[in-house]
Amino acid sequence: MLAAFLRNDNHPELATIGILAGGLFNIIGDYIFVFTFDMGILGAGLATAVGSGISFAVMVSHFWSKKNTLVLRKPTGFLRKLRKITVTGFPTFFVDIAMGILTVLFNRQIMKYLDSNALAVYGPIVNIGTIVQCCAYSVGQAAQPIITINYGAKKWRRIKETLRYALYTIGVFSIFWTALSLICPNFYIYIFMKPTKTILDIAPTIIRCYSISFLLLPLNIFSTYYFQVIMKPRAAYPIIRSMLKDFKGAILCVTHDSNY
User: Which residues have CB under 8 Å from 145's CB, separation 6+?
Assistant: First the structure.
């Protein structure tokens, strides 16, 4: 949330510094707390918590800097604005929450109908899928303040130019991650674990099948940002409907006793 305020208040570099500072501490803190101090999972959690605190401290300093132009104002028409904010932001919210819930549901089903080897393959591909999502988030969040300002100023040419660059970037991400997954599926497995022969045998088919979604996943996510920015959240609802179908399928798997 703070990063969004900073980007829209012409201070995106501080948001970047804050996120990087917290992330780097998390990485270094994991090693120190888990291995040097032998704190186990408690150390990993502590490193994450402290890293988040560092990011917060760095970004909140913006509000006391000379670059800050944001001030508190008493809202007018609170309920009307709250409704508009909720409707506009719902597509982005749903994309985030849906991915988490689907991951939980599929984990349960894999352990119910398959075995730990299948779950071991699913873990890496879900993490790679999260990275692909983050690539799309980065494009959407970078384009959002630019499009917002120009939308308010009715500078349509600038919006089209920003959209063109964003779509080119999204296309590069889509092609890169799909190609890497199809060509080197077991590369992901070696990153996350020391695999057995059984895992290496079953992983390529699973990863290649899953990675087809990478062709359109970044575009879908960026689209929710774009339509949100130009105040047309209904245009993003087809994406939500497709994800609801995923929900329906996953829930049927959870409640049905037949073999998945």
Answer: 7, 8, 12
Taking the C-alpha atoms of residue 61 and residue 95, their distance in angstroms, rounded to an integer, is 30
Which one has a higher pLDDT value, 114 or 29?
A: 29
pLDDT digits (tens, 9 = 90+) for 148-189: 889 889 999 999 999 999 999 999 999 999 999 999 999 999
Tens of pLDDT along 200-250? 999 999 899 889 989 988 998 898 888 888 877 666 656 556 655 555 554
